[in-house]
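$ fold --in a.seq
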Amino acid sequence: MLKERAATRHALKLELPDVPFDDELLEHLATVDTEAKDALEAWLPFLISHSVASDEESASEVFRRLAARLQSLARQSEDFGARSSSPRPSQPSRPEASTATEQGAPPIPGLEDWLETLSLSAYLPKARAWCSKVGVATLQQVMEKWEELATELQLKELPKRRMRKAVEAWRPSNSVLVSAAACDRDDRTSADQIARASAERRLFGPDDDPYVVLDKLGGGGQGTVHRCWRPKHKGEEFAVKKIALQKQFRLQRDADRTKEKLKAEANILFSLRHSHIVQLFDVVETKEWLYLVMELVEGGELFDHIVKHKYKHLSEHEARYVFLQLADALRYIHSKGVVHRDLKPENILVDRKASRNGLLEVKITDFGYAKLVDDGYSTALTQVGTPQYWAPEVSDAGVCARGYDERVDLWSLGVVLYVMLEGVYPFSSEEQIKQASFKFHQPTTATAKDLIRALIQVRPEDRLGLDDCLKHSWVTTDTRLASTLKPSGPEGDIECFNLGREPSNVVELKSELQKFMTKFKVSAQLKKRQVEVTWSKNVDREATQR
């Protein structure tokens, strides 16, 4: 029993590190066979009482992960016992060779997502090792040999049954089993592609016009970003940010409020139409997921272009063109009453297709911390963003509590320019930030230093405004650059609806506006006794009145 209890404690610590389970409860749960039919019923009341899950459906998802984790730990324990009880061979034994193969095994496109849908993520390293050993290179081949894989992974009956059902779900379409990332681009509109995506749970959106989730592009604290496409739109590709609502908020007491903040981010993005801001096209919410469908920008983060540059920093010519785009985009953002609050090279994407030699085309992304500060009902008061780019009024909790405005973005813009030209952060301590104390290490020109110092000022009112930034002598040194800037994208029609009086419940009204935004894919923001709606071209305005 001690062994089972230790394994249960370990699994809980790995899956639910912030949830306390006492010894008495652990002893009870350790007696439950996770593969038994009534196993979930035994765990269910404790998962809900400890605020891990809110209902049976979400508890079931947590339990599947815990069960997979316990099975994985049991196999590791058995492998260790087998190795320790036998004489050590002079040549590497098979398990050791397998481990080496796991480490060097190339990823199979779609395999990780497929195993995740089966709650078998813990088996990913061994599955990759098996693929490398038998010469399997695609998800299609994995499916064709699924029984061999199940035997290699030593799956018990329940997980093996899930894998069999997943494979059988593909077969009614009589389709060739291929990975999402390796789909034949010319065959994307065929019904069998949709059937395969549906079987893999890679569809979202309306049934008559769904999106198909493809390969993973990246991830962060809130969710993962994937490539996606829409068959009825001639295979046009997008980026989709997937946020697991149950997983993301299961331990948060104010989960509903956090969800509303995510929708507020979407509402802000719907109102922004600029050539140097990543555009939001659609928002889809299900019980389990929130999907933000955005413009696909392929070229990586500006941060990577800086650190991988042959000089480990950009030249002034290169930095000047990026700065022009950022200043122009920020000026537009601020004109909408929005403050970004997390401007940094990691949140600036490079558009590889539009870029030219020595001239990077960039777009600002990640408005997760953005806030509408000019609505007459709210003020930015919280410490959000990235400390290396925080203005003094944000880094100082006392000052922060009294509120701040869009001028925090001016400080961040100055830090971004410094990082582009110097290749390092300007500050190494909070005290340096409070005093705006920094040094230059590269042979940066005097006019560039002057612009950086004009932005990195302790007092917000002393910081150089964006209009003056674009007129600064360092920026206007090359007059040809300004003329090469892309014009802002076509902005939707803006219509204002007067409320006549102050809303009796601002929170409730904002919630209703966000529902309106999600349904009709338009921005609807409360601004000083008015609702400002930004209509996009493809919206049926008459439908919104019904």
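$ fold --in b.seq
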Amino acid sequence: MLLGSAARYSRLRSTYIEISNYFRYRPATLRTGLRCNVAPVRSFQALSCLREQPHIQPSHRPFLEEYKKAVEFPPATHDFETFFNQAAPDQEVVLHGYLGNRADLSKKLSFARLTDPTMTQNIQLISFAKNDAFQKLKSVNANSPVAVRGKVQSKKGSGPDTPKNECWELFVEDIHPLNDFPKDIIMTPETVFPPEQRYLQLRSDGELRDALRFRAQVHSICKDGLEKCQPPFVEVETPLLFKSTPEGAREFLVPTRRPGMAYALPQSPQQYKQLLMASGIPRYFQFARCFRDEDLRADRQPEFTQLDLEMSFATGEDVMRIMEEVIRKLWSSLMKESAPSGPFKRLSYQDAMSRYGSDKPDTRFGMEISRLDYLLPVDLISKITPLTESFVDVFKMEGNDNDPEATTKFITEFLDSPAGAPFNNNPDGAPGIFVYNAKKPLCGLQPFGFEAAEHLEDILELDHGDLIVIQARPKAPFTGGSTAIGDLRRALQTAAVSSGFKPAPTGFDFLWITDFPLFSPSSETEPGQGGTAGIQSTHHPFTAPKTAGDVDALLTDPTQAIADHYDLVVNGVELGGGSRRIHDAAVQEFILRDILQMPAERLADFDHLLSALRAGCPPHAGIALGFDRLVVVMLGKESVRDVIAFPKSGKGEDPMVKAPSLMSSEALDMYRLRLRE
């Protein structure tokens, strides 16, 4: 084995030396650019073959000759935009771009389109058989990058209303291939490439490229707006190699060569930006890369971007005002519909949960939820829930053209579909479904009884063909981000739009959700902050109580304390969340140690923050907008993958580069790690 490895190393080394000598002492015939008659070598297999045959002479390696031509290619005289604005007849230009499909009109005349490097503009090329360029053009595959030298001519039939790119054409005098696009790859605007070839999907899909350009514009406008505030925000980059601290989400660890030591990738720049507030930086922002090892969905990636900002000597009101100004500037610059001119609407967490069953409701399509506190027959309640103590909520979906049969067909298909399965199998009871039909006794509401049916008609303003949904839930305060009836409300609306039963809602409805509970019951599925009190911070453990009364509640019943926490929601999407922070070291330590009951070793993880707060840190507040989600909402896309160049899959994998990859035994040894079965 050792002898074989040594021989192979010697053979490879001699090959590399030979290549080096070839470049240093290549024959004059090759330096003058004479073409070699041997067909170009293009495959990695062929290159490997050459390595194994060091006796082959340099003149028999034509792939290097082809490469030399691409190394020394003519510079472009114009980009396409400048060219179209300055073009003149008989002007000689050099343009760079991608060659389109060629059309041969005869043995002496060919046409093709040249698309610019941004793939947004193109010009027609014309080639005649009177020069070498004609044969060169025929030898270059479509989609290959080229440099074209030619003479500008006005296009026949063009007039003052003709688009710029259609006013001119280029008579090709020379074409310089810069690389080959293989014939075995079929590329059309309709081609859908697998995730393993994301680069080809980006190249063929103009909509994806436009989304990335739009994303860059959003970035620029946000940055410009914050830097022009008075006083201005300062862009500061915070480290990506952080330490493991219990903020509420699972972290990605980065091992080091020091035994047992690891970095953690930041869930957010939260602690660093609070340290900046203690450092005399009054207004900070950055487009921060964040990492969370959590279950994925359409609007979530293991790595994502936040527009993160923090303000000292500020309250949550100050932050919300700044954020509204940023949103208004974005919408006025890039969108057809303006954002609200005045303050955005506000809903408390309790109101959002009771009226919409969600802490990020889409309020555009109504279907508000009401609670049925009385009048419901006992036998009806027993049929919809096994709970002995319950609340019963109700909402209506307006029918379609006053047609009860159409409503019945829609709801039956929904409940029989996979989308309806979670609601049928709800352990607190399946929903009660009724269709209001004026032709039936009690309009189809017989199970409610006369008095309750009349009450429903009044509070819901029922009409022929309307759908009525009731759902039981435990008799307890709201917790979490949604209720079963809230999830059903949203699912029914989605199904109604996708099936054509309802039109899609339009416009943008911005609102702030405020007054969240400061603490919530610990979750079995989320890591929380690692305390032992049975509760966890709803947002993160640095969030301040909202009022003096909420501070008092910390000593009596912390679960009754309200947080100065605010989420920005639009069309049912949480764009971001923020809060006023605890700026007093003693209060912050009290929350961590006495309220959350973190063990001493976890509390020590926050020594750096407590020290900074103790050093006279001013009051401060901030917010983080999910930048990927923001762009998705603005473009009306379905997934953040549509606005990210190289997204991860639903499993958190990058199939293009095959990440994550297995750690080699050498890497495990280097970092002193051991895999457990």
